[in-house]
Specification:
Layout lengths: L16 H9 L8 H16 L9 E3 L6 E3 L4 E2 L4 H12 L9 H7 L11 H8 L3 H25 L5 H14 L8 H12 L3 H4 L1 H17 L4 H9 L2 H11 L9 E3 L6 E3 L18
Antiparallel strand pairs: 1-2, 2-3, 4-5
């Protein structure tokens, strides 16, 4: 049940006025450096597509109520982020193999229907051979998921690579929204369970509450069509809980991830720790 991210509208009840200002205006000061970002993306790819390589060409109907799910971040025809990718690609490469599908994608927005999109999977796979199409996917992923996740981590004063990974992975699967299954809803549930945001409750306690709340959402999704697929994906959260319980908040490598029964090793050449940032001046 990933909802379209029209803007970063995280419920600001759980941040201070200063943190809210940071969330809306400051660049991702807690973002990973390029080499470390590559490691994080490998981990996300294992959780999303069971591969350490980003699956730009992947496209399938998972029968989860979201129509076609495609690309590196599971962009969905129901949720508009797939349409966003195609429209960005059209600007980069006009008259491409996917251009013809824009009107139908607009009609199917908000529905699980793939009617009129029978030839779409083949066209998506063809487009994925083009570096500009991969660039379009990267751009939409960054705008809708990576940067908002890093800004949320900054507003919550989260420092550890594992916590930032947890937010990034959650926003990709759940999206920003108002309901309890969304990224925002999971953050609210974590704040309740931890009796405060992480800068009050402590990062490890809060992260445990966040991952536990997200696991419950995956096991009990409110949308009937989503329930089975999300239950099958709970391994991605189990792996993050395992790393937290082992005390590996810095994501020391090599990392062996086994969310769904097959082990993948992520090797990183640099520390995943982000540079130390300046503390926000105002706290409750």
């Amino acid at each position: 049940m990933r909802l379209r991210v029209l803007a970063l509208t995280i419920d600001l009840l759980w941040v201070t006025a200063a943190a809210a200002q940071t969330l809306m205006t400051e660049p991702s000061s807690d973002a990973f450096q390029p080499a470390a970002r590559s490691c994080i993306e490998q981990m996300i790819s294992v959780f999303e597509n069971e591969s350490t390589s980003l699956k730009y060409d992947l496209v399938e109907d998972l029968n989860d109520g979201r129509g076609y799910t495609a690309g590196r971040a599971g962009f969905a025809s129901r949720d508009s982020d797939l349409l966003d990718v195609v429209e960005v690609y059209n600007r980069l490469q006009p008259n491409n193999a996917l251009s013809v599908f824009v009107p139908v994608l607009k009609q199917r927005r908000g529905t699980a229907s793939t009617e009129g999109l029978e030839a779409f999977p083949a066209a998506w796979k063809k487009a994925a051979l083009d570096p500009l199409f991969r660039q379009a996917q990267d751009q939409v992923n960054d705008e809708l998921y990576y940067r908002p996740a890093m800004q949320a981590a900054n507003a919550l004063h989260l420092r550890s690579p594992l916590a930032k990974l947890a937010l990034y992975d959650a926003i990709i699967q759940h999206g920003i929204g108002e309901n309890s299954d969304s990224f925002d809803g999971i953050i609210r549930a974590a704040n309740r369970a931890a009796q405060g945001p992480p800068y009050q409750a402590g990062e490890q306690k809060w992260l445990m509450a966040f991952l536990t709340a997200r696991k419950q959402v995956l096991l009990n999704a409110s949308e009937p069509e989503t329930r089975q697929v999300w239950k099958e994906s709970v391994g991605r959260v189990n792996e993050q809980l395992r790393l937290l319980k082992a005390g590996n908040l810095q994501l020391s490598t090599p990392l062996v991830l086994n969310p769904y029964g097959t082990a993948f090793t992520v090797n990183c050449v640099v520390s995943l720790s982000a540079p130390k940032r300046t503390e926000l001046q105002s706290k409750p």
